[in-house]
Design a protein that fits this description.
Order of helices and strands of chain B: EHEHEHEHHEEHEHEEHHHHHH
Strand order of the largest sheet of chain B: 6-5-7-8-9
Oligomer: heterodimer
CATH class of the largest domain in chain B: Alpha Beta
Structural class of chain A: alpha+beta
CATH topology of the largest domain in chain B: Rossmann fold
Number of domains of chain A: 1
Shape of chain B: elongated
Radius of gyration of chain B: 25 Å
Number of helices of chain A: 11
Largest interface: A-B, 44 and 43 residues
Distance between the termini of chain A: 49 Å
Largest sheet of chain B: 5 strands, mixed
CATH architecture of the largest domain in chain B: 3-Layer(aba) Sandwich
Radius of gyration of chain A: 21 Å
Number of helices of chain B: 13
Largest sheet of chain A: 8 strands, mixed
Strand order of the largest sheet of chain A: 3-2-6-7-8-9-1-10
Order of helices and strands of chain A: EHEEEEEHHHEEEHEHHHEEHHH
Number of domains of chain B: 3
Shape of chain A: globular
Distance between the termini of chain B: 29 Å
Helix content of chain A: 25-40%
Number of strands of chain B: 9
Chain lengths: 335, 430
Amino acid sequence: MSELITERKLRQLAADWISAGKRVVGPARIRDRILYTALRSSESLVLGGDGYLRPANSIKEFFFPKQEQLYQYRVRGRNIELLEPSADFAEQLIIAARPCDAAALPVLDHVFNWDFADEFYNRRRRATTILTIACGAADDACFCTSVGIGPEDPRGSDAVLLELGDGRYKVRPVTEKGGKLLAGKTEPSQETAPETRGPERKFDSAKIRAFLENHFEHAIWAEHGRSCMACGVCAFSCPTCHCFDIVDAGPAAGSARVRTWDTCQFPIFTQHASGHNPRGAQPARQRQRILHKFSIYPEKFGKILCTGCGNCVRNCPVGLGVLNLLTEIEHGQHL
Amino acid sequence: MNDATQFEPKIVAYVCNWCTYLGADLAGTTRLEYPPNIRIIRLPCTGRIDFNLLVKAFEIGADAVLVSGCHPGDCHYTSGNYHARRRWILFRELLDLLGFDLERIHFTWISAAEGKKFQQVVTDVTEKTRKLGPYTELYAATAAKGLPQMQPKPFEFRTFDQQDELRAEARKLLSAGDVKVVIGYGERGPILLTRPDEADLLVWNNRCTANLAMYLKRKEVKALGKPALVVKACDERSLVVLEKEAQFERKDLHVIGMACEGMEQPKCANCAVRTPRFADTTIGQLPNQVPAATPGKLDALLEMSRAERMAFWVQEFDRCVKCYACRQVCPMCYCERCIVDKNQPISIDPAPSTKGNFAWHIARAFHLAGRCIGCGACARACPVGVDFGLLNVQLARAAKKHFDYQAGVDPSAELLIGAFSQLDKEEFIG
């Protein structure tokens, strides 16, 4: 015996949270694309249809925002006053996430709790409930199955919903929090959800890792990296990229120390004060991103820093993204 | 003495060192009284005023801004004030679109001998601002209203006839060895070919939207040697600007011009010239056409009230993550170090906050004033669909309206920014 929830109930759930003044995040249509966004109304929530696969951004910004005040300070003569930020870690609900977004969180938990427990991240994690909708389709850019994740992967989710059609979803609770959230909103059902189809496996991550560990210098880096324009699209739309910078914002006398997203693709990411840049050209920066995801992070934390969502591939203005390079390594003469 | 409840405006005055500052000094030494609401910031020349300084003044609480320099013909540096005047004509159009209150931005000429005029101007500006009240509209999102969205046309993939000819040309150029790299379009996006046997990787179809001139600035590409660049007539205009700005020498570039039937982009409806005019090799021939007059989103935005416009931009910029894809894919954004990457001191707030995003998008748009050729690469690259391309269109319209200038159309025309005319309009200058 299992449970199902209807689309109407799901929207009602979102509407209830919104009217209670709590943040509900979900995919919504903004101009010509679909993005995870804090919803103003449950009507704008996109649950599927029209060839929709996944949003062009990721849910990481609701745990690790693009900019966040760490503290404020006021300078008065010789006195420097530090002010704690208003801790806004109210309960939030993420609805209709994709498994490749939710699965990024258990991966990120490692780095945000490694030599320092990041309370900003952790408290948001604890305050969030995630309802994931399993993927019914995949496109050329999807490769979750190549990094050990699947279209109905429960990792990071509090409940996974599987589409039954006609606006009904089979509920697969994952955590107690997820079960509690949906309690009383579901109805019993005997139906089995149609099998979800993941993308075909496009590379073997163990083989890739072996290649990366032995080919720090290789012609493929220059070939792949020279058409890269050094923007941050791949990193900023990636569910797992988590590098940040800390900057002072505002006028010097009364200001805030702010954490902002940063990326290894920007030349100034590694620029020394002397002017020297150890990663002086774009191919070296591209290599860094790939190595970090598929070799350095796995070595350190035992997990691949990639969930195969394909955002870097779809969003790259010049048609790069990690998948293209990795399949080239997989199928090319490089191994 | 003023009533304690009376609003006392804060006014920031950016004045030049040589005329207006001395005018202010003269006002002081001749004991002329004027309201104490003004905070003077002395700069070498109005021509050196970074426009983000004005925005910054508003951000930290100014209710009005005054800029004042030498009278035309009097500039200590001969022409700084003329440059300022020309840039102001454009900058006001940008601020207007963004929903800034132009009534709070004043420009005037005051000479060293005009202590009396200084007194008058400060008194007038203070009184006017007092009437307007505090500037609370700045970055307010309350009046948000959507723009009509264009329905995307169904996309039908088409390969154009000239694909084979393009491949043959690339093969020929790379075999001859004069050209070291062909920058063209591949299946997934731009590709850089260095060997003749790779020529068949080139494609020519209606997905070839990118403006490949962006690669001319890349160090990694320059290192490869003389490039052959595949361009459409629209992208070719960026080459005209870049050459004029001395970013490359024409003899160091081989241009393969492709006659283009259109890339299914909104801008293609406004296309007049379809065959590149200055290419070394031109493939295909298409006659010029009359651009469709399309009342677009910009017109809809300009019809909104000032508060609605500002609210619109607050919402748009709210999505910006500062990935700088807009900058990176722009052929014109070639500065070795972008103003936003300067951090000692920080000039533009690096955080993707409302303030930081306004500052960034104003700087980006204005640095492209009179230079942007409207290829639309920036807007296509934006991962979160911020509609900042409208800022560039507004500035291009302003260049056309005030100076009858279109970037990259006439190679013999003087660059718009960096030049000036004594006849430039100045009806906004008091």
